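Holo model, pyridoxal-5'-phosphate. Inputs:
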Amino acid sequence: MSIQTNLETFRSNLTANCQLIAVSKTQPVEAIREAYDAGQRVFGENKVQELVPKYEALPKDIQWHLIGHLQSNKVKYIAPFVHLIHSIDSLKLLEEVNRQAIKVSRTINCLLQLHIATEETKFGFSEEEVTEMLASDSFGKLTNIRITGLMGMASFTQNEEQIRQEFRSLKIFFEKLKAASQPPSVTMKELSMGMSSDYKIAMEEGSTMIRVGTAIFGHRNYPA
Ligand SMILES: *Cc1c(COP(=O)(O)O)cnc(C)c1O
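Output:
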């Protein structure tokens, strides 16, 4: 199947209010160009050192999303252009995003990554940590970031019921935050969940952004 055919299939299966983020990590610029020519404008990368050269090489109307773990010392390289950071997992990182956003006179959109999987290796906040952070004075002082929602990665398992429960609990927390009074920099509208293996379940559980790589571009040549 070609990239174009895969994209068309995905678009026709998206639920209302759900956006497709084409995850182009490890893919060459030519493959991204092919998706671009097929109309795709939203791409996700998980490494800053891969994202920056791709941003420079490709058309400027692409919206670039950073979806992988982000180190504070690399924020400055993406601050001038990144559209959305999905992987905020500490107040310290958010403070650095704010600092770099001020330098380039931008407000940077961010999602808070929640740890919903059973594996210990996945990054992210607990629900308690998010609630505490949003209520803190330090958070209230951040002028150039906007929290637009949450992101989560389900466990790597064949157990669909477990995956569904993990997505469902994230959605419940999302609705809870949405219903509560929040600082002005918080608007809960995006719920980023679902990858090639579990996007169908994620959409059924209310995802507004699925992050799909291999199901569009084919298998990656080397591990990301
Ligand atoms: C790689 C990656 C994806 C996409 O994974 P596929 O299985 O290729 O669809 C989604 N989200 C994150 C955070 C990733 O690192």
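The two ends are 22 Å apart (CA to CA). The chain has a mean pLDDT of 95.
Archived with the compound record.
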